[in-house]
Amino acid sequence: MTQQHTAIGDLYYGIPAIRLKFGRYEAVALPGNGANLISFRDNETGYSFLREPDAESIEAFKQSPSVYGIPFLFPPNRYEDGKFLWNGVTYELPINEEATHNHLHGFLHTVRWEVEDYGSGEQGSYVVMNQHVREGHPMFRYLPFTFTIKLTYSIDEFGLHQRYVIHNEGDQPIPNLFAFHTAIRVPFVPDSSPEDYKIKVTIGERRELTDRLLATGQFQPLSPEEELMKTTGVSPYFASMDNHYTAAPQDGRNYMELTHSKTGATLVYDVGTAYKHWMIWNNKANKEFICPEPQMNMINAPNRPDLPAEDIGLIALAPGHIFETTSRLYCVTPNKTKS
User: How far apart are CA 28 and CA 3, in angstroms?
Assistant: First the structure.
């Protein structure tokens, strides 16, 4: 290990953190705050890719952790009236979004995660965090399934690598419904303007949502700007977005690209083809950040047994089985073959 390659316990505005460094890159994970990967930076260019709190907004982060960094959602998004139908049983989740009378975003983005391991070497710097869900866990009260989730974040010369693994340790199939509520800073280049950026996402069709932000199972036509978003790119703030799309991988990849026109720097979020959907939210086009969220399931999928499970991402994991998927965030810059 060299001084450039480190993984240390640290504080992030007073919050216990694991800070990773490898060459030009630096990342910070907050195990006690939902395993949120709160920071990913390129120290050579000064690029800061994620929406981070500062000293003045750290308390706001603690109150609303889902709009900073990369929160992990399980199960993700909204469930009508808190109902969660699974294998013929209806489970009751707490109503935590009063405006829509829905359950929102599950249980694991706010709880403490165990740090299983962290370290650094010539191949990269990493942290492994886990969550053992079983009797006595706060989530088990509502969804009584026995499983372990491991999240690994590592950085190397190719950027930030994200690994999700779930192991069903119970005796019945469990719902493998998850998402990452990834908040990308726009602009990420210092002293640049939000108007300097274009975003491309491998979306397919736009799902229709009710006034309670629940999926109807129907589709809506894409606007001209949305057609550009899946081809040549469009401003990330062309309209206020809280939109739900099917994923449509291109050239074998499922990804977002955010390009700064003046430098040509392109942030790539390659999320893998396991995800069935994207959520895209830009907080009323406030020109601060955009959340391209890779999501396994359609909103409210467990409560729609009338729709094909494969199409809506209603994915079950059999007893004893393991599911794994990986993603990567990296920046392509002109005249460089490596990020």
Answer: 17
7 and 18 in contact (C-beta within 8 Å)?
Answer: yes
> Residues, the chain, total?
339
Rounded CA gap, 47 and 316, in Å?
Answer: 39
pTM for the whole structure = 0.95
Beta carbons within 8 Å of 127's beta carbon, 6+ residues apart = 7, 18, 20, 29, 31, 115, 117, 118, 152, 153, 154
Where would I find the H helices in the chain?
58-63, 224-229, 309-312
Amino acid type, 259 = T
- Bond preceding residue 249 cis, omega within 30 of 0: no
Residue type at position 271: V
Bridge-based pairing state of the strands 124-133 and 89-92:
unpaired
Those residues with Cβ within 8 angstroms of residue 20's Cβ, 6 or more apart along the chain or in another chain: 6, 7, 26, 27, 28, 29, 118, 120, 125, 126, 127, 153, 154, 155
CA angle centred on 93, ends 312 and 90, rounded to 5°: 65
| Angstrom distances, CA of residue 39 to CA of 12, 27, 51, 309 | 10, 5, 8, 35
| Tens-digit pLDDT profile for residues 196-236 | 999 999 999 999 999 999 999 999 999 999 999 999 999 99
The residues near 294 (Cβ < 8 Å, ≥ 6 apart) are 179, 180, 182, 247, 254, 269, 271, 272, 275, 277, 278, 327
